[in-house]
Amino acid sequence: MIPLKILVGCEQSQVVTKAFRALGHEAYSCDILPCSGGHPEWHIKNKVEHIIWNYHFAVESGNICLNQHGWDLMIAHPPCQYLSNSGVTWLYNKDGSRNEPRWEEMRKAAALFKMLLYAPIPHIVIENPIQHRYAREEIGVSWGQQIHPWMFGHMEQKPTCLWLKNVPALRETHNVYDEMKKLPANVRQRVHYMPPSDHRAADRAVTYEGIGAAIAKQYGEFLCR
Question: Which of 113, 85, 115, 82 is CA-nearest to residue 100?
């Protein structure tokens, strides 16, 4: 097997990065925040757009040597605060007028999303929650697949959408839906019921390990074939 060069954009948890590394691929997480996954030698602390458009980017700290021929695959988790369905009400003020600063932030988030979606990388997977209609209109392309953690062995439900470029849909690996439905709502929807905190957004964004493992195994095998 020839190791793939993989960029995991907007990931500081390194769940997906470590899953690819465990299978022998050369994967790097990339985020403006320091990594929390325990492997700073696999982490590029920078904006993902800077890395995509500069394959020869020299990392000042660590011994990372990026592939001079570019990336084989990118898995990206762009910020969803201004794009997700849960935040659509903030686009309007209580008096019904448009919240223009919020609309501007939404347009910026959509621009980053589109930049990732149309990046010069042959195979791309972008993950985000269900987006509101204004975000979908701004981006112009809807998701190709919707998955849940219970499809990959986690007793939780959290709709997650995938935008897929030159890769197949992700196959479920361990369906635990029936067992999960026996749990109370605040357990099976743990992420939704997280209390407010300074790290709530980061905790909500962490990829489930079962999903990360499925992404690494299935797309690694697909590209190597």
Answer: 82
- Supply the pLDDT for residue 180: 93
Whole-angstrom Cα distance, residue 33 to residue 43?
10
Angle (CA) 163 19 60, round 5°: 90
pLDDT on residue 59: 42
- Round the CA-based radius of gyration of the chain to a whole number and report it: 18
Which residues of the chain register pLDDT less than 70?
54-69, 191-205
If DSSP codes are grouped into helix, strand and coil, which group holds residue 204? helix
Residue 182 has what pLDDT?
Answer: 92
Sequence-distant (6+) residues with CB within 8 A of 210 are 149, 152, 153, 154, 173, 174
C-alpha closest to that of 41 among 51, 26, 55:
26
Sequence-ordered strand ranges (E) for the chain = 5-9, 26-31, 43-45, 73-76, 123-128, 145-147, 160-165
Domain containing residue 168? 5-224
Report in angstroms the alpha-carbon separations of 198 from 38, 85, 106.
21, 21, 22
pLDDT tens-digit readout, 13-65:
999 999 999 999 999 999 999 999 999 999 999 999 999 876 544 444 444 44
Query: What residue type is 58 in one-letter code?
Result: A
CATH number for the domain harbouring residue 203: 3.40.50.150
Copy the structure tokens of residue 109: 């988030």
> What span, in angstroms and rounded, lies between the C-alpha atoms of 40 and 31?
11
Q: Indicate the number of domains in the chain.
A: 1
